[in-house]
Amino acid sequence: MEFFEIDIPFMLLLLVLPLIGTAFCSLVKRDANQGAIMFSGFTLAVALVYVCAMWTTDFTESFSTGWIETKYILINFDLYVDGMSMLMIVLTALLVFLVSIFSSSEKHNPRMFFAMLMAMEVGLMGVYMAHDYFLFYIFWEIVLVPMYFLISGWGGPRRHYAAIKFLIYTHVASLVMLIGIFVMVFEAAGASDQLNFTFSAVAAAAGGFDQLFQTAAFGLLFFGFAVKMPLVPFHTWLPDAHVEAPTAGSVLLAGVMLKMGSYGIIRICLEVLPQGAVAWQPFMIVVAIVAIIYGAYACIAQKDLKKMVAFSSISHMGMVMLAIATLSGMGIGFAIFQMFAHGLITAVLFMVCGICGHNAGTREIPLLGGLAGKMPIFAAFMMFGFLASLGLPGLVGFVAEFGIIMSFFEYLLSIDMIWPIIFALAALLLTAGYYLWAMQRSIFGKETDRIDLSDVHDVNKAEGFSLGVLCALIALFGIMPSIVMKLIEVVPLVISGVIV
Amino acid sequence: MSFLADMDSLVAYLLPLAPHLILIITALIVPAIGFKSGKAAAFFSLGAGLFAIAVTAYMMYTGYKGDFEGLYMFNDFTALMIMLFLVVFCLVVLMSISDSERTKHHGEYFAILAIATVGMMLVCAAEEMISLFVGLELANIMSFALVAFKKNDPRSAEAAVKYLITSGLSTALFLYGMSLMYGFTGTIVINDIIYSLATQEITWAYAVAVTTLIAGSAFKISLIPFHAWVPDVYEGAPTPITTFLAVGAKKMGFIVFFKLFLLMFVVVHFLSAAAGEVAEIHQLQWVFALLAAGTMTVGNIVAISQNNIKRMLAYSSIAQGGYILIVLSVGTDYSMAGGLLHMITHVFMKGGAFVVVAALAARGLGESIDDYKGLAKRAPLVAFAMMLFMFSLAGIPPLAGFYSKFVLFSSAVEGGTWIWLVAVAVVNSAISLYYYARVVKAMYVDKGSTTERFRVPVSFKIALAVCAIAVIVIGIYPGPVMELCEMASFEYINGFLEWLKSSPYV
Description:
Oligomer: heterodimer
Radius of gyration of chain A: 22 Å
Number of domains of chain B: 1
Number of strands of chain A: 3
Strand order of the largest sheet of chain A: 1-2-3
Helix content of chain B: over 70%
Order of helices and strands of chain B: HHHEEHHHHHHHHHHHHHHHHH
Strand content of chain B: under 5%
Mean pLDDT of chain A: 88
Largest sheet of chain B: 2 strands, antiparallel
Distance between the termini of chain B: 46 Å
Distance between the termini of chain A: 38 Å
Largest interface: A-B, 36 and 34 residues
Strand content of chain A: under 5%
Structural class of chain B: mainly alpha
Shape of chain A: globular
Number of helices of chain A: 21
Number of strands of chain B: 2
Largest sheet of chain A: 3 strands, mixed
Shape of chain B: globular
Order of helices and strands of chain A: HHEEHHHHHEHHHHHHHHHHHHHH
């Protein structure tokens, strides 16, 4: 297959196309929305071709070129793609594309809006491809800036507070992570003068890190990633950011940005510091369970539909953490699967929330009721999204949660302590509870008289298309998870090989 | 022929001071010509500044090292710092071209500016305490005149008096420290003093001398608790002169610190390593670490509540000084390279921010952050440049400020002793993001009272373009600049160690 021969520039296209898109959207006089759709579409096409091409290779590709090389510092422009990053890249490309279509009727300063979306894509792609700590950190931080502007410029009434809280909170976490990186790079450099920031150099030296050092460095890095995920008790920025962010921002925030945290844990913490992971394992499991239960419990109390979805994200990311914390190949595999599944599902949920707030005028669950009569298509999508999120068999969420609980159970068997499985099961029950209850109150039942439903209209074409694509994918990967699994299965083997 | 041969030897004799002489000659010529318009005088000075940069760069490129009578030296380190001050000079001249408030004394203004710059350059080159002091005073006295240049503005006069008093006090302290130091070291040659300080027991005289020396220089750098004059003076002085003080004069103090104390720590490390002991940490390194932590914390926290942009930048300048001070506590050549790099990037990002302030003031915009609301609509490119400078100061990648902080902070992780200092710096970096983001928010998110577009004068545009491009280029491709800094710091420290090895002391 000559056509699928991967060339060096191919990988760079994933960064360059959104970058051109950013410049294009910010410079054109009008129709920035079409520019964004076009460039994110190109990026998606490239990502999809790339995935197909990967089937013919051994599922890893790398690209390396020198960047900064001085007496004391060596930083390379290294990119690396394997199954896990590829999955995240495709998810990013897909969500940015769909979000651009979804928000194509944005009226308020559309140039900046779409430029910010494209800039986000650059940062996200970079994070999932970077194979050099300096580069990784740069992309990690670049993501913050467009997100800050998206919340601050197009958000709800308390947007300024939410935006600055988001910015400072995650910036602090990133800086702590940066200290972790410094510590690791210095340890890896040993007696040599030159600090080598490439992943490969640190990984090569990682065998010599002692247990104590690994535990300490793991703590620093883990903190940075945990705030991003976010895990309870570092989650307080998330509900604010989500509630105030515009729909496009929320979708990208929950869909792909939170995954940066779990991606970092798998890619850096587990691969480089496996002994640290073992030392932190009990802590990770406790934190994960607390996040799952707390997130689900908080959902029940929420009146704002969007805030409920935001808390459900905390709960679901807790699932990811739980799967990672089992430190088994299967657990990590399903963690990645859940990252992907949650990305698709949560995009549907936030789009639905956005439509609800826009079309019905409010997202307050107590004010809603009987929307299914006025907005049947909307109600169908909402139901589909909620059911997918609570883990209905046949949809993608079920596969992920099933796998996670199975791997957790396996872990519990191995330590001869089975009762904590109750927490995981209880969380599933709670999840089903709050979703069904919210659905019952908002779209079913008697038509509400608390808000004016006279000029409520249903989902428009652009919104319907985005939601339709996502729902189709949720169903497709629910029935045939093996497509995704094939990409993932190479990854955890490598990692568990390190740990065991 | 003999005349020509004499000329040759004269040139060789004066060559270490070539950049200084170019500016001195400029300073003599500019008022003598009696330029009628400010522009002509400015262009003449700008040309001279650029020529001096070119000469310095060429001398550095050819690897020239020289020494003038044991008073002033020329090596990679001094060349880099001289170029830094010359860039500041050019930037300030560019900002002063279309200063409508200055109606006469154009020649004098640029001459004084040039002499002040010469003073700073002499500090870089000084090899013994008296020449160092002469350089410091030259820069100081000229600065008073510059701060007071808006004669009819009471704020400017107030600032000048404040600056005069604090600066006089700091000079007195410095001189007192110098005299004490001469008393127990018996020399004014800096290298000998360093060795003597590094190996002596700490006595009362020693402590007082070192304290007064640190305090004297700390006024210049505006370290806590010697910072109180900074916001008032920065606010009252004409904006180009504020730039000159913030990005230029401040660096003088760091150079004094590098010259005296950084090398002292190097000697301590060297001697303990030579004796086969674990490298010990000098008590003064702790003093500098505490000063650094205090300075960045106070600077950043107070900056949050400032509404006047010049005052906010003044406090942020104090905080940035705290970051650079990390070098003194770490005391390795890698960290010194980071410090030099941060000094360079600071010129462009802080200088650029002040250029924006001056450019907007030239179009009648106030100095309050509220006046910047909706700027992105009114002057998109200026707002974009300001955003770059703000994010660079906050250390957001991929801008220059991020890279220099990256090197600076990473250098402090080595060895593990100063990890707490890195933690403090990191927390501060996050705090600072708050007030920098506030400016960006005002420009991009908030609605202004008017959306009328305006243009800024060309000279400001050029200055802005230079700063913005430097901030981006150093951020994306820091390799060459980093190499220069590494070369300078390595040569500086290693050159000193070479001297030490060949000296009678070891």
